[in-house]
């Protein structure tokens, strides 16, 4: 058997037929592959993509708060309407009629006097304040009354020999009966003998008592006593 016959197809097909068939199949496969790829791409292109849309809600508009309501103003107090006093009716006036009535007495007619004007009452003047009480009348005690017969103080003999003289002022408390109750030296004469002699003499005197508004009252009084050499 020859070499070409060894590789001859069993079906009686020739080598050339196999080669041609193979080439044809290759082209068919290539064409199919090409067509299948293009068809897939076309399908991909033709098929519309799903659009995902998201609805975005717009932001709510800002609402300004309502302005505060003003406080209600209290109603104004109702004032009672002023009642006007009725005006007095005008007084009728007589009118002279030029044509007197028959059998009417003749006489002159006079108009009515006008009504007196209404005057407001005058407020009474405030009362004057009461006058202050008068100061009390005071009468000081006295030793000059003639009926008292008060003797003069005797001059001490030793004071005369020594030439002692001067004025003694005594402060005497005189009771309501006119008798001295206490004798004090208000101003000395400068000599103790003259001062003591004046005190002893005044204690034996009688006085007109002092008075306040005519009523006797115990009072102090100043009594001067002079010692003068003759």
| Terminal Cα span | 226 Å
The total count of strands amounts to 6
Q: Could you give me the name of the CATH homologous superfamily of one domain?
A: TonB
CATH architectural type of one domain:
2-Layer Sandwich
Q: CATH fold name of one domain, please?
A: TolA/TonB C-terminal domain
Q: Supply the CATH class of one domain.
A: Alpha Beta
Overall mean pLDDT stands at 73
> Total number of helical segments?
4
- State Rg: 79 Å
β-strand percent reads 5-15%
Cross-sheet strand order for the largest sheet: 1-4-5
Basic shape: elongated
**Main β sheet profile:** 3 strands, antiparallel
Q: Pairing-aware structural class of the strands and helices?
A: alpha+beta
Provide the low-confidence segments as ranges.
1-12, 42-56
H/E series, N to C? HHEHEEHEEE
Helix share bin = 10-25%
Which terms would index this structure?
alpha+beta, TolA/TonB C-terminal domain, disordered N terminus, 4 helices
Reconstruct the topology from this structure:
Layout: H1 3-6, H2 15-46, E1 138-139, H3 157-162, E2 166-174, E3 180-187, H4 192-202, E4 210-212, E5 215-217, E6 219-227
Antiparallel strand pairs: 1-4, 2-3, 2-6, 4-5
């Amino acid at each position: 058997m020859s070499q070409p016959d060894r590789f001859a197809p069993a079906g009686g097909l020739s080598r050339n037929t196999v080669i041609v068939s193979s080439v044809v199949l290759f082209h068919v496969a290539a064409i199919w592959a090409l067509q299948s790829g293009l068809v897939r791409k076309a399908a991909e292109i033709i098929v519309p993509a799903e659009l995902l849309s998201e609805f975005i809600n717009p932001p709510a508009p800002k609402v300004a708060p309502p302005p505060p309501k003003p406080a209600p103003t209290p109603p104004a107090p109702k004032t009672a309407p002023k009642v006007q006093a009725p005006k007095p009716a005008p007084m009728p006036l007589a009118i002279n009629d030029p044509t007197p009535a028959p059998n009417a007495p003749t006489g002159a007619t006079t108009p009515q006097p006008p009504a007196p004007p209404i005057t407001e009452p005058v407020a009474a003047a405030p009362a004057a304040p009461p006058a202050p009480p008068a100061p009390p009348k005071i009468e000081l005690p006295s030793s000059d009354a003639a009926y008292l017969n008060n003797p003069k103080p005797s001059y001490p003999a030793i004071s005369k020999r020594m030439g002692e003289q001067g004025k003694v002022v005594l402060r005497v408390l005189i009771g309501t009966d006119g008798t001295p109750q206490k004798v004090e030296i208000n101003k000395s004469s400068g000599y103790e003998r003259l001062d003591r002699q004046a005190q002893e003499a005044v204690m034996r005197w009688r006085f007109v008592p002092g008075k306040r508004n005519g009523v006797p009252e115990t009072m102090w009084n100043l009594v001067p006593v002079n010692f003068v050499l003759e």
